[in-house]
Amino acid sequence: MSDIIQLLPDNVANQIAAGEVVQRPASVVKELLENAVDAKANSIRLIIKDAGRTLIQIIDNGKGMSQTDARLAFERHSTSKIKTADDLYNLHTNGFRGEALASIAAISHVTLRSKQENNELGTKIDIKGGDLTAQEIISTPNGTSIEVKNLFYNIPARRNFLKSNTVETRHIIDAFQRIALTYPNISFSMIHNDSEIFNLKIGNLKQRIIGVFGKKIDEKLIPISEETEILKIDGYVAKANFAKKKRGEQFYFVNDRFIKSHYLNHAVTSAFEELIPHGYHPSYFLYLQVPPNSIDINIHPTKTEIKFDNEKDLYAIIRSTIKHSLGQYNVSPVLDFEKDPNLDTPYNFRNKATSTPKIEVDSNFNPFKNEEKLKYNPKKEIKPSWEALYTDTDNTDGFNSLKNIEVDVENVSQNLFDEAKEQTNYSTFQVHQRYIVSSIKSGIVLIDQNAAHQRILYEEFLEKITIKGIGSQHLLFPKEISLNKSDILILKNIQLDLESAGFQFSITENDIISVSAIPTTISENMLQNIFEKLTYNIKNEVPESSFSQLDSIAKSLAKSTAIKKGRKLNHKEQEEIVNNLFLCKEPNFTPRGKKTFIILTLEELEEKFNF
Predict the structure, then answer these.
(1) What is the CATH number of the domain that holds 121?
(2) Which whole number is the average pLDDT over 426-443?
(3) Between helices 546-561 and 527-540, what is the axis angle to 10°?
């Protein structure tokens, strides 16, 4: 029998490795940015076109590579970071596996230019699909420039699985932000389709956070700092009143590496316990320094998940540190049972000098000198009858005068009061302020009030936006909204669609959104929440066409303005939801596919009692 096991060719092996390392254009951006940081660069520039499909270019002023190193860098498992297996548990750099460049080159066209500072000339290498096509000596600036073109050109199936440009750009921005937030001592810039998105100067951590998320975040931040034998923690958390419904600005960095940890995230949320409503999430930027031998970062291909030796201890330290800072900056309530509040000095008198009060006595005062005898007079002063109505209820004369007053009184029908009485024969009723129950011929229908209202509003919004046109109301004073730069980029792309939906706004140089008009169907205080949800939905969906963007806007407006669970509805509101729901074109599901109602037949109910 012939042998059936064989070694894979290098190009096939590299493509398999690329499936783990390079999942989308953002994966290429992450790997190349980390290489630029490891090269000790203090200025890094990212240029992308068409969300990375056409071009991803990283330019840095780092150490550069020699001619030999430039060629070896594209071989599998080639690295300058480790030499033995023990080095995996004492890492101080980002890239160490030596698979990134080989995997990227296997599925794209790569051009590398690199030069070391002590060399007069540099090296240029062209690789196509993992094969070296050209290598030459050129004149180039110090550092490294690497261009990745036509990503996944030889794997069309993988290219077809990419999302829309909006979604892929969002993932690239996420990868860029994570690296930029990790290294505030490096200047970063990002250009997308010849438009500058970020230009971050070298500064401290707080300046970098403000540079990434806008100036409005400055007022939200509370500093965090603590150092123990097993952990040093620095960073910022946002005040409780700025918590959001969506998980967005939540960043953990361990030894200058962005990570995801649901367990440590719970340490933060538990510190905010009873300070933020249920369903809201705090924002935080936490930087942890732990001994390298106490973690394992080689458990996941993307290296965003790591394993801790003492996770429970870290949890306790993080939680207590955040609670201490919240109390220190008067964000969380503090009870002092030994303090007498009556002894508090008012602010206006706190710094004033005390003075002895002066006492003056009139030595000639005689309280008995002008004393007059009080006589009891049972007769009261007779007042006019009209005045007695208001001042003296005991005056019988005034009472008798009321008899002479004639008042025209309409006969009040008993029906007026009958209508005010609550009826008892309603066809609907509410359960736990979440569901509406109504009887039908075959049984009962149980309606989710929030889901049903979403479907109703969605179809109304979509019809008004696309056909009838939705009315706008101009605000007396423009409403300013603050979003991070990536969300503002999304709003710029869909601004025309939002204007057709009734919004009118402009974006200032300081990345502040100034809203001058809103749809007549929403209120001004809902704007921040609507814009945040809208950008979140656009990021995570695939709006390939103008209509799908309008569809996403209609979905977001419907979800933001729909009746929430927990709201008590009167019987008229309940009946309106039931009637309007079954007038919809698709009453069975919400715009995002969740059921709006279920039906329990009489047979099903009968079975519940027969067991």
Answers:
(1) 3.30.565.10
(2) 86
(3) 140
